[in-house]
Amino acid sequence: MDSTMRGTVEMTAAMVILGTIGWFVVMSGEPIMDVVFWRCAFGAITLLIICAALGLLRGTLSLRIVAIAALGGAAIVINWLLLFSSFSRASISIATAVYNTQPFMLVGFGALFFSERLTLTKLAWLGIAFAGMLLIVQGSPDAGSDAGPNTGNVGTDYFIGIAMALGAAFFWAVAAIVTKKLKGTSPHLIALIQVCVGVVILAPFANLSHLPADVWSWSMLATLGVVHTGLMYILMYGAIQKLPTYLQGSLSFIYPVVAILVDVVAFGHRLHPAQMVGGAAILIAAAGMNLGWTLWKSKTPAESTQAIK
After folding, report:
1. DSSP secondary-structure letter at 152?
2. How confident is the prediction along the chain (309 residues), in pLDDT tens digits per residue?
3. What angle do CA 19, 22, 24 make, to 5 degrees?
């Protein structure tokens, strides 16, 4: 198996694992604060073992690197809290679709803080994603008896769930921008610092005096830490080293597809047609942004010359 094929398998596996995270969060039956705390705790143990096995703990990290990684860790923890909380309010499908507005958050940060140029194509994809967002909101179960989707018990805080998913995307973009400052630092070490920060931040708020009493809940929480954090990071970072950017971007959309399928199969959630169109619009726009698709044909130099004549 060549390097590209191996990377494709690793990235696919990582995205499939990520797509099932909503099921484990819901099935754990634990408060979201506790879920994120234990994900960080089990993830920290797993990543510590991995970093030790790879010999990454032998060197020294500067205070600057630790501080920047910790800042990114705080953003990641808020990201997880908001995303996991949105599942019970807007359903896993809707929350995942809205969460995939991440590329547009990054574009906005790039324009605001790094003077990156906003092209007409990027603005067009942003407009399509915004239209998709409006369709999703319009399809709210609170928007009227005829407008609501057959999504089962998605909760009464539908709009709050959408806002939480948007907030999660925002803090993911913050973490991504912060992590850009850590070029040359092992991503496994960065992830280890981030989950350790999560343990420290959430320990005062987690319900540690009343721990889960059954094996099922512990197995869900351990899986979130070991598989959805430790193993997923190994697979994803391994794939990133082997794959060209365009292939990384295209394979990343396995995640929302799997998440939506899990929501349909495991929980029987069915989306209103308007929400299906809205979710598809967001995912297509995000793909277009990530993969550099254009919405119109550019003129060739010859055509431009003829137009001038």
Report:
1. S
2. 678 889 899 999 999 999 999 999 999 999 999 999 999 999 999 999 999 998 999 877 889 999 999 999 999 999 999 999 999 888 899 999 999 888 888 888 888 877 777 788 888 888 998 888 888 877 655 444 333 344 444 445 888 999 999 999 999 999 988 888 888 888 889 999 999 999 999 999 999 988 988 999 999 999 999 999 999 988 988 888 788 877 777 888 889 889 989 998 988 887 788 888 988 988 898 888 877 788 776 555 454 444 444
3. 105
Helix (H) or strand (E) holding 185: none
- pTM score: 0.84
Give the rounded distance of the alpha carbon of 209 from its chain centre. 31
Torsion of CA 110, 111, 114, 117, to 10 degrees: 100
Backbone φ and ψ for 143, nearest 5 degrees, come out as -85, 0
Neighbours of 212 (CB within 10 A): 17
Q: Largest Cα–Cα distance in the chain?
A: 80
User: What is the DSSP annotation of 76-139?
Assistant: HHHHHHHHHHHHHHH-HHHHHHHHTTHHHHHHHHHHHHS-----HHHHHHHHHHHHHHHHHHHT
Which segments of 139-214 does DSSP mark as H helices, in order? 158-179, 187-202
With contact defined as beta carbons under 8 Å apart, do 260 and 34 qualify? no
Whole-angstrom Cα distance, residue 25 to residue 88?
10
Give 43's contacts (C-beta < 8 A, 6+ positions apart): 191, 195, 198, 224, 225, 226, 229, 230
